[in-house]
Amino acid sequence: MTTGEKIAEKGAAAGKPLAEFQFPSPEVTKCPYPFYEALRSEAPVYKYPDRNDFLISRREDILFVLRQPDIFSNRTYLADEWAPGAERRAELELKPPGGVLETSFGLTSSDPPEHSVKRRALRSLINPRYIHSCEETLRRLANELIDGFQSRGSVELRGEFADPLAMLTICELAGFDPNDREIFLSWHRIGTGHGRRFLSAEQLAEQSKDQPEQQAYCERIIQDRLANPRDDFLTEVIQAQIERDGEINLPYLIGEIRLILTAGNETTSRLITNVMKLLIEHPDQLAKVVADRDLVPNAIDEALRYECPTQWTSRLVMQDTEIGGVAVPKGAFVLMLYGSANRDDTWTDPDKFDIERPSVRELNMAFGGGIHRCLGSPIALAEGRIALEVMLDRLKNPRFAPGHEEERENIDNFQKRVPKKLFIEFDTP
Questions:
Q1: Residues 6 or more apart in contact with residue 94 via CB below 8 angstroms
Q2: pLDDT tens digits, residue range 235-279?
Q3: What count of other Cβ atoms lies within 10 Å of the Cβ of residue 278?
Q4: Where are the alpha helices (DSSP H) in 31-75?
Q5: Which residues make Cβ contacts (< 8 Å) with residue 333, sequence separation at least 6?
Q6: How far is CA 187 from CA 108, 197, 255, 325, in A?
């Protein structure tokens, strides 16, 4: 969809009452922002009909949720059959007194105090000095991928550049075998644990069929590092868990390694794809960043705000409470719509894509917030910056390839923002 078409579509939907929207629906998946606008205007804390879900659309209300993990729990598996780890509810017993309070569930399904322990175990992966030391390697990977298609003058950017670059980056940083990248990229990535509750039966079946293979792969990684320790992050995580807890916790380690492998690349791929799409859609902004590379970090931040790669996550309400004056009962789920918060009245002219927007990094909610703020955000920002710098250096005069308008529409998942495919053309050297 061209910029003009998007403006026309939003203009046609502007002022549309909330009652006329269906959620989720193809309309909202394609362009959720009119729906978000209606939510903020009519019901900032919106009870979803016939479900125990509340949609939270304003930044101040989302921050209220994020800052109270004792009330709003990340352990959604306690009440959600589709949540990560729900199939292991019987394992909820804590370890004996005197040990670390820890279940076998992963970081993204944990609350304090075990959340703090698990987060510390992964923190060395995102050490700024370590990431900086890898920047030249990441730049080399980006250039090698472009070497493979630059002479053609065209590329499907998501599949041939963004996806493999993000995957190769996490392989490089964590210690996965880069030769296995085709295996990783073959796995379906159509919904996070938070989003599974809103997927169709067909989508759930597609996503679920790869999980046994993913689990088996991660278990092989663990057994290999136990038998053959290496100087890499995967070995460090495994050894640290055993030293900390006195014995191996295989379900926990499998979950964490799957998290590193999948969450560590998927959102970054969406960011890289989105920023190029947005710059082509806004040629005035593309011209600015081409002329002044100091604007690259701002362009990445604004792309994250404007097309938040993960539109929302959820929490389980642990006690009766209120959000924005609306009663929310114990046992309900709250969906924090980051994509809406990034377009609310916190911002001046929020529907404008402006790479010179002030304070965008400080106010941006693309990485969430509170104790669960995305641990991998420094990796995503560094990788996005390097990818954009390399693309601007080597893909001169980028533009959309004709005939692929429908493929530039969003994937069939309202929780994620990324085009199905992004075919572009550029001048050859």
A1: 101, 102, 103
A2: 999 998 898 888 888 888 988 888 888 776 888 999 999 999 999
A3: 19
A4: 33-42, 59-66
A5: 52, 53, 54, 76, 79, 80, 197, 314, 315, 316, 317
A6: 20, 19, 16, 43
pTM here is 0.90
pLDDT for 177-225, tens place per residue? Answer: 988 888 888 876 655 566 677 777 777 777 678 788 888 999 999 999 9
pLDDT of residue 189: 62
Domains within the chain, CATH numbers bracketed: 3-427 (1.10.630.10)
Orientation angle between helical segments 250-281 and 296-306, nearest 10 degrees = 100
**How many other C-beta atoms are found inside a 10 Å radius of the C-beta of residue 12?**
10
- 54: Cβ–Cβ under 8 A, 6 or more apart, which residues? 45, 46, 47, 48, 323, 326, 328, 332, 333, 334, 335
Is pLDDT of 305 > 50?
A: yes
- Please write the tens of the pLDDT for every residue from 392-405: 999 999 999 999 99
β-bridge partners, 427: 396
How many angstroms separate the CA atoms of 24 and 413, rounded?
9
